[in-house]
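[Discussion] Sanity-checking designs against the backbone

I'm trying to build intuition for which residues belong where. Below is a C-alpha cell string of 608 positions. I'd appreciate it if someone posts a full sequence so I can compare it with mine line by line.
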C-alpha cells in the first residue's frame, strides 16, 4: 500500500467503459482547480477506437479512445490512475488487467456486487505489488484543488459549496460515498476544508481500508487532522484502533462509526452496504466507537455532535499554530452547457437546420404533421407519402395514384439506356449497391430523363402566353433550343410510346382538367408534321400532366406551382422511379455473377 499522497495536480487517469457525465465532471473540476492539462488522458472502450469530444473549460477537446487496456497504457505512460466503470460482471478482470500494467498505480472500482473471491485476488495482487485499490462499490476519491475520480463530490455546485476547488488541511476517509458528500459539506463549514477525501466502498472486502488511508494521511505534511466515518459491520475500524494504540498515527483523529440505531431492532439489520451488517458485539457501532475513543481518537456521543467535534479539534490546532487556515480564493466560472442554458431560459441559440416536412420528436415520427401510425392505419401508399413529404399536404387519391403510375412506368427502360448501362458496368466492377446506383443516377439530365421539369416549364409558359403550337415551336427553334418532352430515338408517329398513352388515358378519366396535356398534344401534332420521330415522349407527358394535376386539384396557388416547377420536383419523380430499376440491375448483375465489363473493340471507331 502506498504510504503518501496518491494524487496531484498533474495526475492523469485512464477511464474504462465510456460514461460522458462523470468524465465531463472530472474535466469541469480540472478547470475549476486551474489545471493546465485534463485529468483524463484516455478512454478505454472495448471494441471501439477513435476520439470522444468533451469540454475542458470553454475549449472543446478530443480525448483518445482505445479498445484495449494495454494499448491505452502504452499510449499514455504517465497516466497512473485507472478508473473502472465496468459492470460487476467484468470489473474484476479489467481491474486485474490494469493492475498488471507497470504504469498503473491506483485502481478505482466503481461497481457494486463484484464477487468477493475476485476482490480478494485483486487485494492480494495490489498489496504484493505496492499498488492501491479503491473500492469496489466506491464513488472514488478527491484531492481538493488537484484531481477527482468520476462522480466524487457530485455536481460542480456542490464542489464549490464544499470548497473542494482548493486544498484544505483535513484528510477524510469513509466507507460511504453518499455520506462523503455530506461530510465534505460539514468539514467545509467548520474547518478550512478537505485536503484529500477517499470513499473506500461499502463491500465486505474493500481494496484498501480505513487505516490504510489514515496512515497515508499521517505521512502527508499538508494534512493536519484526520476525519474518519466508519459503519457497523466488519472489523476494519479495529486496525485503526491498533494503529492509534501503537502510536503510528500522530495527528488528531476525529471519528464516528454510524449504525448505532441497529440495537433498536430486535433482529439483525442489513443496511445499504454489503458490509454494513453487524456480525456480533465487536462489529456493532457502539463497540467500535468505544474502542476508537479508548485508543485516543476524538469520538462524539452522537452523529449530531460529529460536526462540533471536528470544529473544536480544528480550532485547537489553529490556536496552537499548527494550522494556518487557507486563504479563500474565487474559483473560475464553469461555462454552462448550451442545452442546459437553453432549458433554463438563460440563452437563445439559433438553429442550424429548418425542417417543415417531418418531425422525429415525440413518440412516433410524423410526415407533414401526420403520425406514422395514421399513415399505416389509413392505408396510405407511396404516392400519399410523396404528397406529404414533397408537397406538405394530402393530395386527392387520383393525384397520388397518378404519382404512383409515373413511378411504375419510369422505373426501368431496359439495360441499354445510359443510366442502366453505367450501373451495370459499375456493378460488374465489383462495386457496392450505392456506388452502382449513383453512377446510373448521375447520367440523369437534359439528355436522359431529366427533361420533365423543362417540359413543364416551357409548356406552361407557352400555354399561359396563349402561343400557338407554331409560335411556340418556331420560337424555340430561333433560340436554338430543342422542345423538351418532344422527340424519341425509337418511337414514331405510327408507333407511339405505350407509357404516354396510359398516362393520357388515366388523366382524361380522372383529372378535372387536362388543358396543359391537350396543348402538348397540339404541339406534337405540329412537330410530327416536320419529322416522324418528334412525338410526345414520357417526359413531356408527365411534365404537362403534372401541370394539370397541380392546377386542377385546386390545392396549389400559381406562385406555388411556379416554385414546384422551378425547384425541380418533377425530375425528382424520374430520379425516384429510375432508382428502382437501377437497383434491380445491380442485383441482377451480382446474382448472375457477371465479370468485369470490357467494351468490344469492334464497337469502337478508332480514327486519327
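Best answer:
Here's mine. Compare freely.
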Amino acid at each position: 500500500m502506498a504510504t503518501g499522497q496518491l494524487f496531484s495536480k498533474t495526475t492523469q487517469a485512464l477511464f474504462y467503459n465510456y460514461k460522458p457525465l462523470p468524465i465531463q465532471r472530472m474535466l469541469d473540476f480540472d478547470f475549476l482547480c486551474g489545471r493546465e492539462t485534463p485529468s483524463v488522458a484516455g478512454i478505454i472502450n472495448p471494441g471501439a477506437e477513435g476520439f470522444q469530444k468533451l469540454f475542458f473549460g470553454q475549449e472543446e477537446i478530443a480525448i483518445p479512445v482505445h479498445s484495449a487496456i494495454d494499448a491505452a497504457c502504452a499510449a499514455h505512460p504517465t497516466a497512473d490512475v485507472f478508473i473502472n466503470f465496468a459492470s460487476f460482471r467484468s470489473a474484476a478482470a479489467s481491474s486485474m488487467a490494469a493492475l498488471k500494467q507497470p504504469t498503473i498505480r491506483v485502481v478505482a472500482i466503481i461497481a457494486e456486487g463484484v464477487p468477493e473471491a475476485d476482490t480478494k485476488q485483486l487485494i492480494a495482487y495490489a498489496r504484493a505489488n505496492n499498488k492501491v485499490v479503491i473500492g469496489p462499490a466506491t464513488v472514488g476519491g478527491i484531492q481538493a484543488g488537484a484531481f477527482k475520480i468520476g462522480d466524487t463530490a457530485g455536481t460542480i455546485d456542490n464542489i464549490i459549496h464544499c470548497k473542494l476547488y482548493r486544498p484544505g488541511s483535513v484528510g477524510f476517509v469513509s466507507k460511504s460515498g453518499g455520506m462523503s458528500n455530506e461530510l465534505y459539506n460539514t468539514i467545509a463549514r467548520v474547518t478550512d476544508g478537505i485536503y484529500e477525501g477517499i470513499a473506500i466502498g461499502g463491500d465486505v472486502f474493500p481494496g484498501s481500508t480505513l487505516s490504510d488511508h489514515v496512515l497515508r494521511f499521517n505521512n502527508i505534511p499538508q494534512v493536519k487532522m484526520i476525519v474518519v466515518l466508519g459503519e457497523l459491520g466488519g472489523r476494519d475500524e479495529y486496525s485503526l484502533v491498533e494503529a492509534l494504540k501503537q502510536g503510528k498515527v500522530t495527528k488528531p483523529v476525529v471519528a464516528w462509526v454510524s449504525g448505532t440505531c441497529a440495537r433498536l431492532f430486535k433482529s439483525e439489520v442489513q443496511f445499504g452496504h454489503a458490509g454494513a451488517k453487524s456480525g456480533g458485539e465487536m462489529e456493532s457501532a457502539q463497540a467500535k466507537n468505544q474502542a476508537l475513543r479508548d485508543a485516543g481518537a476524538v469520538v462524539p456521543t452522537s452523529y449530531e455532535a460529529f460536526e462540533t467535534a471536528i470544529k473544536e479539534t480544528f480550532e485547537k490546532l489553529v490556536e496552537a499554530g499548527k494550522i494556518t487556515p487557507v486563504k479563500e480564493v474565487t474559483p473560475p466560472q464553469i461555462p454552462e452547457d448550451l442545452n442546459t442554458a437553453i432549458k433554463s431560459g438563460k440563452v437563445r441559440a439559433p438553429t442550424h437546420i429548418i425542417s417543415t416536412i417531418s418531425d422525429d420528436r415525440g413518440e412516433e415520427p410524423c410526415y407533414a404533421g401526420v403520425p406514422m401510425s395514421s399513415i399505416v392505419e389509413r392505408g396510405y401508399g407511396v404516392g400519399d407519402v410523396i404528397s406529404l413529404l414533397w408537397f406538405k399536404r394530402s393530395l386527392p387519391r387520383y393525384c397520388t395514384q397518378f404519382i404512383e403510375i409515373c413511378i411504375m412506368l419510369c422505373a426501368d427502360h431496359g439495360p441499354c439506356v445510359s443510366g442502366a448501362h453505367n450501373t451495370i458496368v459499375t456493378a460488374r466492377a465489383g462495386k457496392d449497391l450505392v456506388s452502382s446506383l449513383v453512377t446510373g443516377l448521375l447520367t440523369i439530365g437534359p439528355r436522359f430523363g431529366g427533361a420533365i421539369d423543362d417540359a413543364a416549364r416551357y409548356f406552361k409558359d407557352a400555354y399561359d402566353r396563349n402561343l400557338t403550337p407554331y409560335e411556340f415551336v418556331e420560337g424555340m427553334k430561333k433560340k436554338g433550343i430543342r422542345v423538351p418532352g418532344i422527340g424519341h430515338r425509337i418511337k414514331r408517329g405510327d408507333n407511339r410510346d405505350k407509357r404516354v398513352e396510359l398516362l393520357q388515358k388515366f388523366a382524361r378519366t380522372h383529372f378535372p382538367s387536362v388543358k396543359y396535356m391537350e396543348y402538348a398534344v397540339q404541339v406534337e401534332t405540329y412537330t410530327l408534321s416536320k419529322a416522324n420521330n418528334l412525338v410526345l415522349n414520357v417526359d413531356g407527358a408527365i411534365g404537362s400532366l403534372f401541370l394539370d394535376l397541380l392546377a386542377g386539384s385546386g390545392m396549389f396557388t400559381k406562385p406555388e406551382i411556379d416554385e414546384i416547377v422551378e425547384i425541380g420536383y418533377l425530375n425528382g419523380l424520374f430520379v425516384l422511379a429510375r432508382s428502382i430499376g437501377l437497383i434491380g440491375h445491380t442485383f441482377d448483375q451480382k446474382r448472375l455473377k457477371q465479370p468485369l465489363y470490357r467494351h468490344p473493340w469492334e464497337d469502337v471507331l478508332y480514327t486519327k
